[in-house]
Amino acid sequence: MAVYTDVAAEDLAAFLAGYELGELLAYKGIAEGVENSNFLLHTDRGYFILTLYEKRVAADDLPFFLGLMEHLAARGLNCPQPVKHRDGQVLGRLAGRPAAIVTFLDGMWIRRPSPGHCGAVGEALAQLHLAGADFPLRRANALSVAGWRPLYRAAQAKNADRVQPGLTDALAAELAQLESAWPRDLSQGVIHADLFPDNVFFLHDRLSGLIDFYFACTDTLAYDLAICLNAWCFETDHSYNVTKGRALLQAYAGKRPLSDDEQRQLPVLCRGAALRFLLTRLVDWLDVPAGALVRPKDPMEYFRKLRFHQTIGSARDYGFD
Amino acid sequence: MAVYTDVAAEDLAAFLAGYELGELLAYKGIAEGVENSNFLLHTDRGYFILTLYEKRVAADDLPFFLGLMEHLAARGLNCPQPVKHRDGQVLGRLAGRPAAIVTFLDGMWIRRPSPGHCGAVGEALAQLHLAGADFPLRRANALSVAGWRPLYRAAQAKNADRVQPGLTDALAAELAQLESAWPRDLSQGVIHADLFPDNVFFLHDRLSGLIDFYFACTDTLAYDLAICLNAWCFETDHSYNVTKGRALLQAYAGKRPLSDDEQRQLPVLCRGAALRFLLTRLVDWLDVPAGALVRPKDPMEYFRKLRFHQTIGSARDYGFD
Question: How far apart are CA A194 and CA A102, in angstroms?
Fold first, then answer.
């Protein structure tokens, strides 16, 4: 939640001259996303978002992300739409970084989602999966099962047990089980891979848009659903809210029915999703020096979610009928 | 440059119901100001800025700041105008903090100001001083000469010499001289006290507005001019640009002529302004633990400016004719 790169008004005005956006009237650094520098632009033509891609986003992946947003928007999904440069490109360069401008979406993210919000997310996720079916580009998911062991080793090397005694062993056991049990023949396609509440906008209690496609990739569709169950259906006391889970799962399946295999594998996929966020948060947590002003997100929230998923036997236990 | 307090969409919508601003359509945390949490709001009625006042701003001072913005805007100065609650108040409460909404000003701040920009700032500063003449509220300046010794003691206690050997003694000598030489009978009135480039907006190379009145107070008018000379007329190599200084001073004096005493005292006022920013930056710098992710602004920039002002004999040396 930070602006990393400052942009001078003089440089931004010169950059905008390459677009059909009229004159720059104002811009503000905004706290949106954690990986890139984002600015809200006001021009003669309205409001837009400018993103400067910082080093955590690989420049080679940008055509996938920007192309996907164009593809989904063209199929009626409400997501930011890249604005084309006069030369037809959507990717430019500003302040020494790759840069792109996208349309501004109205709407707010919901801090305390209701079952109704969870249902809307389930429906939108299925729409995204269906709309992405004919997207021609592919991008491997670096944060799926094959990416977890390097993260585990990084956490181990930084002495993860100082977060909680026994954590390293618990992670090793879970990782070994998931590597062997991970389902590899479920339906694949474009997944968002990070559809947390802050990436879903609502207006008048209706879902108004999805943002932040910078973890999107080609992977198991039902894994995306498992990520959403983790992100949307737990209470702040870390208990699972089966009413929210049912709303999300039923709404998803109403648009894209779950196969028997997907239903059966849902608990394993949920464990994997919990482990993925546990590991990345843990590495970030262990990376921060003592006394720092900014603390990363609490990794142990996902350890508690993982423990819950380990007790689950079937999709029915998540509320799926 | 940080959003300190998160506001839930649900809470913000309830807060806005007390204003005639229509429905909330979107809001974003923005990187503006360093003392408070700021959000850009989009409602049915347009774009606005919401400020939550964090602990560094005393709640008792808010009527002064907000009243001043209303007063100046009513006299034609382009600055944010507080939006009145349905009950007529401009100060509310949100997320446990005092909160106010002000109008959104178009315009951008200039990272590399030209002499033309400096002239525009000089003129606007004089207009602010004239428009503030009949503002009825008073607020003492905690960061004028009487406030520097406590800051000096804080820096001394934190071992300022680790920033530069001999710094503590140099500060002590300068402070003693300024305490004795400080002019106390120059014209007083409302001063902005922090009119740095990031608080001045330009549009099409014309000054379009002044923002951030949260250091404004009642003090020596020419001290405000000295702050602007420090903030606007030095190059990045810390050399003084006399062309910019002349532009700023002449434009100011064109609207509000400088008395003989103000001209004579300008070098002392400039030394005081440099010492004020040197001391506050130094204390912030010494406060930050080793290894922190965020470094405060470099205090030594103002030590170099102070050294320059110590060599100056008259307003003429700053470019004043």
Answer: 19
